[in-house]
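Model it.
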Amino acid sequence: MKDNIRPIMKNKGFGAFLFFVGILGFAVIIMRVVFYEFEYDPVHYPVDYGRFNFFSYFTVQSNLYVAFYLLCMGLAIFGKEKAQKIAFNPLVRLTVTTYILVTGAVYCGGIPIGMTPPLSWDNFQHIMLGSVQVFHHMIMPPFMLVLFLIPTTGEKIKLKQLPIVGIYPLVYSVLSIIRGAVFKSHFFVYPFYKPEFFWNMLLKGREMNSGAAYMLLVPMLFLGIGVFLLLALILSLIYNRICEKTAKKTVEI
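Modeled.
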């Protein structure tokens, strides 16, 4: 592995902490699946799609990615070369951070407009669900942002690689829309994947045409991917600047 690894990325205590958080990330998801219990809600949960449908959410997939990354980071700090190739890779760091930040932003942004299911703390089930939501959407995003802004090897992010960040959310979104449109359950993992969502927002009052509504999703889909890419660009510019400053300080010393 590269010989310009930053000192903090050799700190075994820091590595053990990150490994623990990674294990915790997996444990939270396992707990949520094991203790799954359907509760009818006419707005957010009208149908029981089963406990394993939990993995359909971008929230869960992005948090699984985070947990895996943190395990790799922990092992990398302990000197495991294969883990270092993943954990210290600038593009991997960029994708995992971008995805989890979007996860947190969408959830928190949906609270004031009623798109996000309300939290309740009156019994074990609700406390567990609320804790999982807070962990996934409010704790892990800022945690990963702080970790991202700590350079690992000093290697910059190559801006020409930024389009790669949009591939996974694009594929995920297309498959999610197809699933909702084609399968009998008509499960749309998020409201904005439903054809009527943007139709009612932009053409409210007009009778919905299903074909036109799905066509309307296309530009909105690419606009959404643009958000991922814009965030990735901002993160990359900030990260590269930090790398430059860190390298300059190292030379001066």
